[in-house]
Amino acid sequence: MSRPSWDQYFMDIAGEVSGRSTCLRRSTGAVLVLDKRILATGYNGVPAGLAHCEDVGCLREQRSIPSGSHHELCRGIHAEQNAVIQAAKHGIAINGATVYCTHQPCVLCAKILINAGVTDIVYRDAYPDPLSLELLEEAGIKPRELGGES
User: Can 80 be counted among the known catalytic residues?
Assistant: First the structure.
């Protein structure tokens, strides 16, 4: 058995975190890491205390909203957003951190990650949001695609 690289190790954990997702369209997970230490994790789903999409249906499906657009028209919060929220809620500084995501961050998550001081983004699967990549590039962040299902 070969030992996984640090990137693969944290990406595998992001994959496990995505298993908690309650989204009917796409399960995503994110892990914030600094100095090889996990700071916070997040998965996509509705805010705490609200009915899950599996119980009330997917708003995006009901309104025929295509993937990669109108992110605000969703009951759920993205994995990256939840990871940043968890860090903030528990007083954990994430400036200079790396985020490992099962999917390339959308433009909303990209803006949040930029302002939170995340300096490295590693993702497994592409996402149809070219504006996200443009903003990250302008901010000096070069996302890395690790690729492949973990």
Answer: yes
- The answer to whether 142 and 103 have CB atoms below 8 angstroms apart is no
Q: Three-class SS of residue 1?
A: coil
Question: Where are the extended beta strands (E) located within 10-148?
Answer: 29-34, 37-43, 98-103, 120-125, 144-145
Q: pLDDT tens for residues 94-107?
A: 999 999 999 999 99
pLDDT tens for 127-141 read: 989 999 999 999 999
Q: Are strands 37-43 and 29-34 parallel, antiparallel or unpaired?
A: antiparallel
Measured in residues, the chain has a length of: 150
Selection from 92, 148, 82, 146 nearest residue 113 by Cα:
82
Indicate which residue of 61, 72, 80, 134 is catalytic: 80
The whole-model pTM stands at 0.93
